[in-house]
Design goal:
Chain lengths: 290, 290
């Protein structure tokens, strides 16, 4: 094959990015720094396409899959999980032989497997995503530096060649990531339920408490600010992510409540030794992480 | 009275700061910027006293209450609640007539009332604290800018004169605060249980979850980092604060669990409408706060 998708000669590669939201826009901006040959931007919103083109983030704006994406050596799907499948179905007739597809979905389930089934021989889909993000949503909030220092998760399936797995890892490092991790889709969703889904729910529940009042704003400092930072949440995206992983997420919420129940009991009992044990364990873990 | 403690002519006032930890050190640094006449620093740790003196944060280092504090027009007790009482008992014989005392305890209970009972006529204790803080503890972590833009809580008791209440509010604004709030000790402790105590417990419980593993570090991004920022906690200080307010804090933990229980149920039921309702409420509240 001479399709070149395994090349890491970025200057000779044409990329297509589907979905110019926070993550898609960030990919486009970071790829610009790699001086890739061209970036095709695909989005259903005309205003977003126009903005991305005017800001020089993309070269070719495209509203629906069409002949133009035959140029793409690599297609990055920065869409909700269910939209990835639809996009691949709609565009399969236009994709070049040997195209490499990847996604950035926060929850994987059967997605990598299902997408690969739709592809023709020579085409390969590999799943991954950066452990990065920031508040807000949309192209305006995108930032090419979100990859800097982040970990990139690569989720290979049986159909993936070692060459393609390594290619994605090389791209991640080129974008600025400092580490890559390979993991199965099942383990991915299980870990993410704790490390990403749960913290969002913890923040939302904290600010949703019945104790919130008009006076709250005068009595908050860093702990409340940090603990509720992600409570300004994109409900469409996150309800999709939570439900795609709902049993694992519910299990994590229940495990979190087990810890809180220990606190409630120890507080009412005035059990200072237990409180200190909880805090010592937490402080040790936090120091080791950062 | 000509004791001058109600003066806001900072250049002519002598301050004593008891406890040169994170908050005491921050007060000393911020008072320096007001060019107060002198700062007496009192701490049980010789190393801390030497460091504070060498760094120019204090003028007079003092290990125990003694004749030197008769100079002080204002005494700021930056100690654990129980230590405030002990300090006042030990130092009462050395304090000048007309001295003004204040504290920065995060939990108030009967403290303002009990301290005032120990004082001689002409002396006044007024309770308050900045809604500010930062990670870590100790003089090394202190920062004179923590008052910038913060709210200062003033907790007057019946014994407090309007003049002294206003004096503390004026000092807070001079230190850089943007707002002051007057509140009773009971309401203070009740609100703080939600806005400060609970976020610390939420962070500790999040990182203490049984789901934490060796792999966690590769799968965390902003939401986990922010949600556990205060989990690196000073167990001595916080066990004291939690227990001083334990029933209210336990009630807040229980209310928090009620919200989380709603999440657990809605997730298992695949109830997307409820999930969106929770998130919409949270996002609205968060946007209004910041």
């Amino acid at each position: 094959m001479t399709t070149g998708f395994k090349s890491t000669d970025w200057k000779n590669l044409n990329f297509a990015i589907v979905g110019l939201g926070l993550i898609g826009g960030s990919f486009a901006k970071a790829l610009r720094r790699l001086h890739v040959r061209s970036i095709i931007g695909i989005d259903i919103d005309d205003n977003v396409l126009t903005a991305a083109k005017n800001q020089g983030i993309i070269d070719v704006p495209l509203k629906v899959a069409g002949e133009e994406i035959r140029q793409a050596d690599v297609v990055i799907c920065a869409l909700y999980p269910e939209a990835v499948i639809k996009f691949v179905k709609d565009s399969i007739g236009f994709l070049k032989e040997g195209v490499l597809l990847t996604d950035v979905s926060g929850i994987k389930k059967n997605l990598p497997f299902e997408v690969q089934l739709l592809l023709r021989p020579g085409m390969e889909f590999i799943s991954g995503h950066p452990m990065a993000g920031r508040q807000g949503s949309g192209l305006d909030m995108s930032d090419g530096t979100i990859f800097q220092g982040a970990n990139y998760i690569v989720i290979p399936e049986k159909h993936n060649s070692e060459e393609v797995i390594k290619w994605l890892e090389t791209l991640a490092m080129a974008l600025g990531c400092k580490h890559t991790t390979r993991i199965s889709p099942e383990e991915h969703d299980s870990i993410i339920a704790y490390t990403s889904n749960l913290p969002h729910i913890a923040a939302v529940a904290l600010i949703d408490s019945d104790s919130f009042s008009e006076k709250t704003k005068y009595f908050i400092a860093g702990s409340f600010r940090d603990g509720t930072r992600v409570a300004d949440i994109n409900e469409e995206l996150w309800s999709s992510l939570f439900l795609a992983n709902k049993d694992r997420v519910a299990d994590e919420v229940d495990k979190y409540m087990e810890q809180l129940q220990l606190w409630s009991i120890a507080l009412r009992a005035g059990d200072i030794d237990s409180l200190k044990d909880f805090m010592r364990k937490a402080a040790t873990r936090r120091k080791e992480l950062y």
